[in-house]
Amino acid sequence: MIISHGGYNVFNLSKPRSVEEKERYARLVNVTRGLGVQSLSVQEVLGDSPEGAGHLLQQFADDTGLECMTAPNPATAAPAMPAIAASQHGHPDKNGAFRGNYHVGVLWAPASNPYPAAGVPTTAPRTSGTPSW
Fold first, then answer.
1. What is the 8-class DSSP label of residue 11?
2. Confidence class of residue 121 from pLDDT cuts 50, 70 and 90?
3. Backbone dihedral region of 113: left (phi > 0), alpha (psi from -120 to 50 degrees) or beta?
4. Separation between Cα atoms, residue 1 and residue 112, nearest integer Å
5. Which CATH architecture has domain 5-112?
6. What is the pTM assigned to this prediction?
7. Rounded CA gap, 114 and 124, in Å?
8. Tell me, what's the pLDDT at 122?
9. Is 69 exposed, middle or buried (0-12, 13-18, 19+ CB in 10 A)?
10. Whole-angstrom Cα distance, residue 114 to residue 109?
């Protein structure tokens, strides 16, 4: 199976607060939907914490029809969580208010299933409930 992957700098993606930001967010969602990729790396997701950025990534994934939630880790019992990596580099908005630190995340098409139940990434299709890697 060939997986199409893309990268998208969403340029200071944060929870939209104003009408202008909501319009921009809608444009980002529409562009992402139109990419037609099965896997997408996104950068410049803003959040006060990795958890906050993860919530934003999860909302963005839901709005675009993609997924970002990893499988629970059976070895540590850690729950499923958004596929986001943290940064300590912050960003002020045009008024100087802190909008959060930059983060990067990964989104994927539901049929791609990069994280099967065992938590091992794969690009091979799953059949009959049996993971293939």
1. E
2. very low
3. left
4. 10
5. 2-Layer Sandwich (3.30)
6. 0.77
7. 8
8. 44
9. middle
10. 9
- Whether pLDDT at 21 is above 70: yes
- What are the b/e assignments for 13-27, b being 16+ CB within 10 Å? bbeeeeeeeeebbee
Report the range of poorest mean pLDDT among 37-46, 60-69, 82-91, 115-124. 115-124
Evaluate whether 109 touches 38 at the Cβ level (below 8 Å). yes
> What are the start-end ranges of the E strands in the chain?
5-13, 39-47, 84-85, 90-92, 98-108
> Among residues 55, 50, 56, which one has the least CA distance to residue 12?
56
| CA atoms of 60 and 38, how far apart (whole Å) | 15
**pLDDT classification of 43: cutoffs 50, 70, 90:** very high
Pick the range with the lowest mean pLDDT from 83-92, 94-103, 124-133: 124-133
